[in-house]
Amino acid sequence: MSFISYLINGVSLGSVYAIIALGYTMVYGIAKMLNFAHGDVIMVGAYVVFTVVSTMGLPPVLGILLSVAICTLLGVTIERVAYKPLRNAGSPLAVLITAIGVSYFLQNVALLIFGANTKSFTSVVPLEALELAGGQLILSGVTIVTIVTGIIVMVCLTLFVNKSRAGQAMLAVSEDKGAAQLMGINVNGTIALTFAIGSALAAVAGLLLCSAYPSLTPYTGAMPGIKAFVAAVFGGIGSIPGAMIGGILLGIIEILGKAYISSQMADAIVFAVLIVVLLVKPTGILGKNVQEKV
User: Fold this and answer.
1) Strands 130-132 and 119-120, how do they pair?
2) Are 41 and 63 in contact, with CB atoms under 8 Å apart?
3) Nearest 5 degrees, angle CA 247-CA 249-CA 253?
């Protein structure tokens, strides 16, 4: 493969990371909580599509819609049951332990229902491959759809946050929950909406990830979830464009690391780059320094 091919594959993988990272960055930016179970929501969404399309033989569109709906409901449920009681009184350690507990719970439920064997995921992207430069460069349908979806999601999310009433409420809650409540904003509803949007994006990321890498296990979402968190921190957690930039850069670094250095060392290279970036700019690429009021 040529360098351009590796670069395009990196952008495609990075777009998946970016979509997942957008969920992380929204939840943190508004609720100031890290949902480390986010990666397992990806797995749940992929299993929904697998069950509907491969097991039941129903149309892929129905599988995608059900996946988004179920993951959205799951995200709201996780927020209400696990995170809401800790929002005001819980320590960061309690939130972390709760997130790990939710993650293990979702993985074990998937193990009980689907077993530990790897499932072969059928791509739900009908688009044919595109040949460029006289056949020297071939873009798969999944690659094209993934990159375009990542761009559309980022643009729509940015417009939603900046232009809609619900988005303005999110910004107000992120600045000061108490003041937002005094202004008549439903803080609990706004945070629940944030979890819902993030979980819906996780469903989209799950079906794109498994369409590109067609294997599915109860642990499918674990490592992409961690890498997406790294992407969010890399780009500046709390920043929507930062999550997109961080995800794409992370995907490119991973693919080029596998191609030119070592496939076994690719993950280590990714985390090493993160460490270097945070040493140089602790807030990430587009992150802002926030001064605490005393």
Assistant:
1) unpaired
2) no
3) 115
Q: What pLDDT, in 10s, does the model give residues 226-238?
A: 898 888 888 888 7
**In angstroms, rounded to a whole number, what is the distance separating the alpha carbons of residues 37 and 49?**
19
**Number of neighbours of residue 167 by Cβ within 10 angstroms:** 17
Contacts of 290 (CB under 8 A, 6+ apart): none
Whether 292 shows a pLDDT value over 60: the answer reads: no
The 3-class SS string of the chain reads: CCHHHHHHHHHHHHHHHHHHHHHHHHHHHHHCCCCCCHHHHHHHHHHHHHHHHHHCCCCHHHHHHHHHHHHHHHHHHHHHHHHHHHCCCCCHHHHHHHHHHHHHHHHHHHHHHHCCCCEECCCCCCCCCEEECCCCEEECHHHHHHHHHHHHHHHHHHHHHHHCHHHHHHHHHHHCHHHHHHCCCCHHHHHHHHHHHHHHHHHHHHHHHHHHCCEECCCCCHHHHHHHHHHHHHHCCCCHHHHHHHHHHHHHHHHHHHHHCCCCCHHHHHHHHHHHHHHHCCCCCCCCCCCCCC
In the chain, what percentage of residues exceed pLDDT 90? 43
pLDDT tens, 105-144?
999 999 999 998 999 998 887 777 777 666 667 778 888 8
For residue 209 the two structure tokens come to 């990830």
Tokens of 127: 């688009």
pTM: predicted TM-score of the whole model, two decimal places: 0.89
